[in-house]
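Hi all, long-time lurker, first post. I run a small reading group and we've been trying to get comfortable going from sequence to structure in the token notation. Rather than ask abstract questions, I figured I'd post a concrete chain and ask someone more experienced to write out its structure so we can walk through it together at our next meeting. Sequence below, copied exactly:
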Amino acid sequence: MPDEKFTHGVDIELVDVSKRYPGQQEAAVDNVSMRIPAGEIVVLVGPSGCGKTTTMKMINRLIEPTSGQILLDGDNVIERDADDLRRHIGYVIQAGGLFPHMTVAANVGLVPGLLKWDKKRTTERVDELLDLVGLDPADFRNRYPREISGGQQQRVGVARALAADPPVLLMDEPFGAVDPITRSRLQDELIRLQDELGKTIVFVTHDFDEAVKLGDRIAVLATGSRIVQYDTPAEILTNPADQYVADFVGAGAALKQLTLTRVRDVELDEAVTVSLGGDAADAARRAQQAGRQHVILLDQRSRPIRWLSLRDLQQSSATSNAQRDEDLEAVSTASTLNDALDTMLTSSHGVVLVRGRDNAYVGAIRLDTIMAAMQDMQPTTPAETSQ
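-- Answer (accepted) --
Happy to help. Here is the structure in token form:
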């Protein structure tokens, strides 16, 4: 359930919205109508130049519509002061869009400052949001963007967009500038945040796999932001409206259906665990009884540190001197089965650890679980179109 401390999302409705630029024969956005339900992630996906970013930017009037209506919770955005409107709609772009000369805290606190929040309230809000996006305020508050990684910058960008507790969040290809592993983790983080916050999120991407993973609904757009299909990911995968959508879904649609199931939706296995400083001999006995060759070492906060083999456990100091494995294969409860399968293929243990809130260990997922899920999936067949 969404956290009651935060403002929940509101409906967005586009009614016959168009954008025509002077000197251009074709409209960039041509007579688009759609309803985005409160509290959902709706993804606009389509090829470059189809108008998806223009459509999104008209919601907060970074681009002014030529005609039509855009309603937020029933109110026409055209009738509002544009600056005030933008301060109440979160906006996230590639690489976070952070100001390089400002600290992380100053970046996150920018909009509260414009809204004349007092210093104490702003500081508390900054720390709350940094913690929410998985960044320790004590470690990151006073750093500058150049001193943190691209993935961390993107988390700060999300925190800044949420600072004034807007009901609506617009995200313009926000994860396109990071490596695939970081991108997957940021997607997982967004899903977790949405579970807690219940905002209305409009997300623009050209990556259909990302759309399937994140979207409660997907709008597949063609030139002029013409909506070819607007439906749930499951419906688009199993019943693409026409050949254009089927081509956009691409090959391997059956495998893409693994993206429809989250790790939290399947029954997890249990790995054999031992806590930092724990009894190595006891851990080895429990592993042998379970028919396992490895155990997972956990720190004081139940976060996985590394795998230990039975040979490692022959040393009594194995559980106290182990270094954290920064490349430990793990997924989150918000990850998809597709993410888990990708991670499993690089794992030497045939099992992937699952982390929950604060990266704490919650279980493990094995190939058998994924194979069983695949057997339950329906094949994808493009719908016959009848005109």
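A couple of things your group might point at:
The chain is about 30% helix and 20% strand.
Residues 48 and 206 are 7 Å apart (CA to CA).
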